């Protein structure tokens, strides 16, 4: 299984998932269709599926055009999300396959939008799994609660995504890592994992490289929104429960001007 980053717009990422045996490919959030087609041609792949994480234009806005350019392509999106040009609506737990070796599991991860879907991908035994989290889970951050509650984001981040295997690679929808880690260090100034990852991210961005992917294991070490079960984090922000802590940290992040 091969995964290609395709930077789009100012700070978005689309991704191409390639089954190497058959050269069949899926693309996540193809907001710039001509760019996607160029990458497909360069890699000699046959585009079969669009996996849309949510309905916002910077993720779903290329679906219509891509469908015109590749008429047989299937466009997947959450059943509650009114995704542009969607041909196949997904529920939590729906399964898809790509080529010979790739399996795709639809995970409903609502809050940023009502019908937000994250896609959990497994390949051959030697491949680490991957999850495409759109604007639910960012590296060291999470999406704004546009259409949901702190309870939902807790369930999406800490239960649904948090229960995936620790080595699962995390591919998110935007390059927000440096800002997120700078904020995370205000929540936990003494967290060495955060300061180390921030230095690493600064180096990556200096050379124009993506900071994606992370792993679920790393997120539990460095992402304040996934650490809300820890008593010391709850205490730091003056809260008594994980959900209340998540709500408070999101509020602090919304107000933060780093």
From TrEMBL:
- UniProt keyword annotations, A-Z: Hydrolase, Metal-binding, Zinc
- What are the EC numbers? 3.1.2.6
Recorded catalytic reaction(s): these are: an S-(2-hydroxyacyl)glutathione + H2O = a 2-hydroxy carboxylate + glutathione + H(+)
Q: Does the keyword Mitochondrion apply?
A: no
Pfam families (alphabetical): HAGH_C (PF16123), Lactamase_B (PF00753)
Domain Metallo-beta-lactamase intervals: 11-174
Q: Which family does it belong to?
A: Belongs to the metallo-beta-lactamase superfamily. Glyoxalase II family.
What is the name attached to this protein's record?
hydroxyacylglutathione hydrolase
Organism of derivation: Salvia divinorum (Maria pastora)
């Amino acid at each position: 299984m091969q995964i290609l980053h395709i930077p789009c717009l100012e700070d978005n990422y689309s991704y191409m998932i390639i089954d190497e045996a058959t050269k069949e490919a899926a693309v996540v959030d193809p907001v710039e269709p001509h760019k996607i087609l160029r990458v497909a041609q360069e890699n000699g792949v046959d585009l079969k599926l669009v996996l849309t994480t949510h309905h916002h234009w910077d993720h779903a806005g290329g679906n219509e055009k891509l469908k015109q350019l590749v008429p047989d392509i299937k466009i997947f999106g959450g059943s509650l999300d009114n995704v542009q040009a969607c041909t196949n609506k997904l529920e939590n737990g729906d399964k898809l396959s790509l080529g010979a070796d790739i399996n795709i599991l639809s995970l409903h991860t609502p809050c940023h939008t009502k019908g937000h879907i994250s896609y959990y991908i497994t390949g051959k035994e030697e491949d680490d799994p991957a999850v495409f989290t759109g604007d639910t889970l960012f590296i060291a951050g999470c999406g704004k609660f546009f259409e949901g509650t702190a309870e939902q984001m807790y369930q999406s981040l800490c239960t649904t995504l948090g229960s995936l295997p620790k080595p699962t690679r995390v591919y998110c929808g935007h390059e927000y890592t440096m800002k997120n880690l700078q904020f995370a260090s205000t929540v936990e100034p003494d967290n060495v994992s955060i300061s180390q990852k921030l230095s690493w991210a600064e180096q990556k961005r200096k050379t124009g490289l993506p900071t994606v992917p992370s792993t679920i294991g790393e997120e539990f070490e460095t992402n304040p929104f996934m650490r809300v079960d820890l008593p010391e984090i709850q205490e730091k922000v003056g809260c008594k429960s994980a959900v209340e802590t998540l709500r408070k940290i999101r509020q602090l992040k919304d107000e933060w001007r780093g």
